[in-house]
Hints:
With 415 residues, the chain is α/β, with parallel strands linked by helices. It contains 17 helices and 11 strands. β10 and β11 form a beta hairpin.
Amino acid sequence: MKVPAHVTTTRHLGAAYPFVAEAGLGAAGVLVGRDLLGGAFVYDPFVLYRAGVLTNPNMIVAGQIGRGKSSFVKSYLWRQAVFGRRAWVIDPKGEYGALAGAWGVSPVHLRPGGPVRLNPLEAIPGDGDDVSAVNRRRTELSASLAEACLGRSLLPRERAALDLAVNRAGEWARAGAPTLPMVVDALLDPSSDHADGLRTTTSELLADGRDVALELRRLVHGDLRGMFDGPTTPGLRLDGPLVVLDLSAVYHSPALGVLMACAAAWLQSALRAQHDHQVILVVDEAWAILADLAVARWLQASWKLSRAWGVANMAVLHRLSDLHSVGSAGSQQVGLAEGLLADSETRVIYAQSASELERSAALLDLSDTETGLLADLRRGVGLWKVGSRSFLVEHRLTARELALVDTDAAMGGSR
Ligand SMILES: Nc1ncnc2c1ncn2[C@@H]1O[C@H](COP(=O)(O)OP(=O)(O)OP(=O)(O)O)[C@@H](O)[C@H]1O
Ligand SMILES: [Mg+2]
């Protein structure tokens, strides 16, 4: 016997089946797609933050290859633009060109020896920042880059030498921002005042900072030169609705994480200089940054500033274990990864491989039903965890959007 379908509103359904059926997140925001338990699914981190549903606006998007993570991000940005929201994207695979084209802007192509340079040390004073706070931020970034290049933590004496070199480079640059070559020069030519301050000699101080200088030199004179080793190229258009930094020329470089961190640092300083609010900052293929403990730590610190800066960060990963890939249980890396997850209250999880399910369930505190679902989600369907609430959402694309997000061209186009 066929039982007739029962039709009701999601509000009634939520009351009839508490903890099973959700009533949605409200109607303010962009339409993402269809809530598979009924109704449309609408989301906006800024609105939900103001409503007290979220305590931070950041998002992690994770899922197996080709499940629609980047497509979701692209169409989400496109839809957010209707509300005047701007987006800044780090694009390691060079796949946001069509989206930029639709907006009438050109991606900024970064490649070794190319025509565009960005200065990651451009920490712009403002919002009551004093000079020492700016220097501290520059030192933190330089130390993260140096640690990632060296593949180990800095020794206390190396950190002190770097700190002094960043300060000295700041003095050389006067009103402008110091550059990485200036920091390398300052490391290789320490001042007697700085040496006296540390009760040491200039030759000792030079020896302390030498390894750091030689590693940072790679970004200045080595195979990675010509992208982050000078003042920012004048005339970059930053006022459009979308800024894309295309890093595809260095996608296969082992230093991709370091380069993405440089790009992220520059984006953040440029964003702050524009006093822009309610901007979405996307790091696609963020696993590359997270693979380096030092740059991951720096990224997490930036994540924490998101509320103060009015920035909603989005990181795109393959597996949640990308967050764990370089650390053993209980290690610093794992703590850091969990911190980043805690600082991203919206988690969108596309299909995960069977080997990942257990870890995803533990990290995201998933119910057995949710864990079971993750194994079989089809392309475009994601489990949304928004604060403590869960939704199963089918992301719908319009024909126009499909053309903007297609990464299947080499496979003969999207079905
Ligand atoms: N919701 C959807 N509806 C229809 N097609 C989709 C949808 N989402 C993605 N696609 C198609 O699937 C293909 C792969 O999507 P996408 O590039 O977003 O995957 P991804 O998860 O970012 O993969 P990768 O991990 O390799 O970066 C695209 O060509 C896109 O057109
Ligand atoms: Mg992708």
